[in-house]
Amino acid sequence: MEANRYDTYREDTAGRANVADSPERIAYYQDLARLETGALWTVANKIEPWAPRSASVPVVWRYQELRGHVLRSAELVSPEEAGRRVIYLNNPGRRDVAAAVGWLYSGLQVMRPGELASAHKHSHSALRFIMEGQGAFTVVDGHKMTLGANDFVLTPNGTWHEHGVAEDGTTCIWQDGLDIPLVNAFEAGFYAVHPDLNQTVTHPVDDTSALWGNAALRPQTTGWNKPYSPLFKYEWEPTYEALRRHARVAAGSPYDGILMEYANPATGGPVMPTIGASMQLLRPGEHTKAHRHTGSFLYQVAKGSGFSVIDGKRYDWAERDIFCVPSWAVHEHANLSSNDDACLFCFNDLPVMRALALYREEAVKDNDGHQQLI
């Protein structure tokens, strides 16, 4: 709002604030300001928009442009110095909160063979999606998981967790995803470093996969009562096979192709209370129709190449690229290959949208369901 002007957001529409400034009114507003108050009608149309207006903008972070810088960080900073050696993704519209999109944070972490980051826990929910390398592992509350490319890993809020790469492994890079901006907006963030810096592995390696990773089968006796998934690792091979089997018998969504959400096997709900995740498959040559919805989405290209049209602008992507779709942005996806699948991993804030009854979706009806490029 301009200095000494309070009618910037007025609208000439019935039911909306439409109060013009006058010397008497301006003097009144200034009196209110001295008491740390204000007249709602001067800001009502701003804080109650007709539809969501995301501060985030669509961005494609190209892996081949970033990879060298991520590897360079391993030469400049040790895990002990950095705590977590990560190059974070900074959306131009969300730089004030270091978010990749909306209230979601993301970054690329690199670790070399034999390195081990210290164990810690925090109020923020976190995930990892493995991009390259061999020998990576994560330990969550004493459960150790070995990791391969395109594996999806949880480190839920309040859990002790640490990451490393085996001595006989190779340099590994993975994408981190957290709800740091959201939790900080709630002013609810806590952080702690493990008193011994590292955990003791107290369970058989990959035990959560053995117990909970079996299709349509649930352990008889679990005792699991936590608000996040007990399956800390979702492996790529069975995920891709499930998508392919789905594609053989069903058309899928006209807006998302073949999309499957990662689920909490104990409840059938999202993997964590504040972060959901999915993997979708676009068949060869498939071009989805356009729609928009509330909620912020961050995609990583797990396989293939293609493009997305977001609010009328085309964004090309290739394997390992990361791109975002802000809340209420119109979007559609296309697989450029005529003979191979494209797969998109995504994490999002849908559990929050749904839990708070804020989720809303709308399809594009004109132009055969596609956007006009601008």
List its traits.
374 residues; alpha+beta; six-stranded antiparallel sheet; 22 strands; globular
> What portion of the residues fall into strands of 2 or more residues?
25-35%
How many strand segments?
22
String of helices and strands: HHEHHEEEEEEEEEHEHEHEEEEEEEEEHE
Sequence stretches where pLDDT stays below 50 over 5 or more residues? none
Count of DSSP-assigned helices: 8
What helical percentage do the residues reach?
10-25%
User: What is the assembly state of the chains in this entry?
Assistant: single chain
Terminal residue distance: 30 Å
Major β-sheet annotation: 6 strands, antiparallel
Structural class: alpha+beta
| Rg for CA atoms | 23 Å
**Which overall shape is indicated by the principal axes computed on the Cα atoms?**
globular
What is the residue-mean pLDDT, rounded to a whole number? 96
Q: How would you write the strand order of the largest sheet? A: 1-19-16-21-14-13
Strands, helices and their partners?
Blueprint: H1 23-33, H2 44-47, E1 60-61, H3 63-76, H4 79-82, E2 86-88, E3 105-111, E4 120-122, E5 126-132, E6 136-140, E7 143-146, E8 152-155, E9 161-165, E10 172-178, H5 180-185, E11 191-193, H6 207-212, E12 233-234, H7 236-249, E13 258-261, E14 276-282, E15 291-293, E16 297-303, E17 306-310, E18 313-317, E19 322-325, E20 331-335, E21 342-348, H8 350-355, E22 361-363
Antiparallel strand pairs: 1-19, 2-3, 3-10, 4-11, 5-8, 5-10, 6-7, 6-9, 8-12, 13-14, 14-21, 15-22, 16-19, 16-21, 17-18, 17-20
